[in-house]
Amino acid sequence: MSYHIVVCGSIVPDPLQTLTPMDGPQGPALKNEMMLPAVLDPWAGHALFEAANLARKLPDCKVWLVSLGPKAKLQQVMMAVAQKAPFQFVAVDGPASGFTDSFAVAESLAQAIENIADLDKGKLLLFGGWQSASRGSGSTIQMVAERLGIVDQFQGVDKLTVTDDGIEVLERVDGGAWLASKVEGAPAAFGWATGELPEPPNNPQVGMMNMKSIMPALQQAKPAQPGTGFKVQGVSVPQVVRETRIVKDMPVDDIARELVDWIKA
Amino acid sequence: MYTLSTLPGDDVRQIMWRFSDRFDLQMVVQSARQIARGTVATLVAEGARHTHEWTEHKAQLLEAFDQSGLTSLFMDPHQGGFIEGPKNLALALVAFELSWVDGGSATCSLASNLALAPIHEKGTREQRDFYMHRATPPQPGEDREIWRGAFALTEPLPYVGVDTGVLVGKVRVDEWKDGAEPMLHVEKRGRFITNMDFAHFVTAAVDSADERIQGSCMITLQADDPGSFDRGAPTLKMCHQLSSTRDPIITVKVPASRIIGGYEIKDGVIVPKYSHSEIIGAVFHRTRIPVGLMTTAKLLSAVEPVIRYQRSRFRGGDASGPGSPKFEMGLQQKEDAQQRLVDIWAMGEAGASLGFGAARMADAFDPVEKRKEALLEEQGCTGPRKQMAALKKKQAETLEYVDLLFADPADKAANQARLDELEADTLVRFSYLDAVLGVTIPATKVWNTGSGANTLREAISLMGGYGITEDCPGFLMYKWADSQLEATYEGPEAVQRMHLTVTMGNPVFLAVLGKWADKLDASDRPGAAALDAAIRAWLWAYEFLDAAKDAEGKKLLHRKRQGVTFPLADALCWLVAAASLFDDVDALIENGPMNPTVAEGLEGLVGFYTDLAFVQAARAAGEAGRILAELVYGYGAQADTSAFAALRAEIDANLAGARLAKDRAGEALTQVMIPEALDYPM
Questions:
Q1: 3-state secondary structure of A119
Q2: Nearest CB neighbour to B24, from listed A35, A80, A208
Q3: What is the pTM of this model?
Q4: Which of A99, B354, B496, B609 is the most exposed place for a label (fewest CB within 10 A)?
């Protein structure tokens, strides 16, 4: 069984940064967005690593990573991501601030996927993050799948096993339990939770190979305006007062006791 | 008044340090950064530095290097690496990224490369293939251990590091059967040998103790060689504890084929192809750059934690509440706190500009040097003296090349054919690059580490209550301690000054320095005129001291007169570093608008960097002026020094606006956005 796996994964600002919203010419944006360091959305990262792992184990599989974001930022992030797993890169040039309409984002991503020349939609497994670190609406992958005509969809996926007669899926549900399902095969869409794989070690040779497709893909990236027709009425940063204590060498029991006291209070 | 929006990110650095078009290097930076802010930071935070022994805890570093791809960075693709061609800039960037968090981890990363460097530079093809292959992580389908190397040059006490020309390690013939390869007996004691805990092989410098072996050589010794491979006691270092360092005692029997570069047998005597000093010369020429940049990384890494400390200094007390200037700005309300940090930042930037400039030029130099070697060998110029004579003949053409290279665009275009012709001349190109690198490499080593260590002390002092505790954010205390070691790495600072004593008087370098001054003179950038005048003052002082004699009629500018040559070298380092920063800011101004990420905040960035360059130019001109005045007036009381006095006055007058620049830069530091938390733990 061979699959064509398309991973949708955008970039998000480094979560350690102060993210201050401001009004831009096209609606809300992040202050200094272009200068903020960015990383691959962690949810999408899980999806990518799972895709690469699956492709490694099965014959004749191909992996594409489709990303929507500012070209310059995508290039920067790919310097790290490209070393993790082999993939073909498809870039869509647009904002990645989180103040975008997931409906329009899905439209752009679906179009980009439709335009992949050697993609066999009969073998298509659509991967992405169940949530996103920028907004967490959990809706984008569903809408991309709908546009591509994929009706078998799974969200909160933690495990995917290819068997002789299909694909077994574990979806995360409340209470630490999983919903086990089985699908005959492609096409299907999977919104990944955290999966089961650790971040793979860097492989610079893979990175050098990937960059050969990443650089042309960035140059050819088509612009998308997923904000058109979408209006955000107001944005503000949650007012949180952080009270941090630094305590060294505290016994585990004491930490646990303090947590329990805090919860009870 | 400009606004500095955020601390400069990767895009800015890529432009200034000229690797925007090198995605291989950008990948390397990301890999090294992940290890630095992950594995390395965790080790330091968990107290791994608190023992001299190499532990399993510390050994996580080696695994991280392997997994990130850094282990194979030094190798060419056919040897298992991934970057084709020279790797000076790549290694410099890795050392910079790792040292951003911990200098010892950078040393650990560089040490295997240092062991491989003699083999890489002068080894036979078989030696290169053998050791390079084993030092790379196994490829798919391979099942083998990765070999690590150690480099053993330094000698046991009491001779530590005083003179690399004196060797106590000895090699003699152990067994030499007719028609068979000679077997050698090697005795080598090392001191402060990095990687020694886990090294599979050692590249050792040894001298002949046998009339059947000529001179000195470098030789590889393996842990499984017959004899004793005693790794020795751990060195009780007070710094760089994330590298393994011991004092080995090795007595082994090895085949003569281990002599690096091979050997010939002439009249029954084994004649190594290269002496140990020839090999060391080739190796150290390059490896000083990353070490210099290690201290520089720490200076720049101090900026963010100091800002965070300054801003939050008065939070939590009763005296101020959220929203009040005292709460929001903390110590940054005080002009002194801001401006001292500006000084630290400017020093760091200048060091980086100098070091990365040298690394780039070293990458350009490597293939030229190889072509030069081949060309001169073809011509029968094999010994150092013959080579120097051949190169001396090219000096006039090299000076012509320098003239054309720095000519204004119209003149350059008119003489393009001649410029191309000279550029294609291997010996001319070699002479030019060698002259500049002969100064910028030791300058990186001595200035970045020495002045850098002094400046790190200032960074710690800015931390106030945090400064002398282990909780000091950014591990600044450790970085300060480590910088003392970097200032002595690969030979004490005196060795670099001795090197500069020889190279700074090269007529080609003096011509290039004059061209740099011309370029600054033509620039209308604030501070350029002060630096231009200071360089001209240095050139004047050099010429003056070259002709002057002391009270006893002895020559002043002589390699034995370290009281003259060493301060002169120090003054030069300040100037070259400041000029390098101007060059990098030029690159930002020219190429910044083409990068959409940088273009957004370019005005603020350029404004800030222009002021920073002025601050550094003023400091450099001041330091150099002081040193030069001591030398010129100190030795030339009876001479006509009016020209020098005029140049000094010109320096002073051209400082106009320097403090205004510092005011602006300090003010910018109060506005710059920084992350809420440092991206590696305390």
A1: coil
A2: A208
A3: 0.92
A4: A99
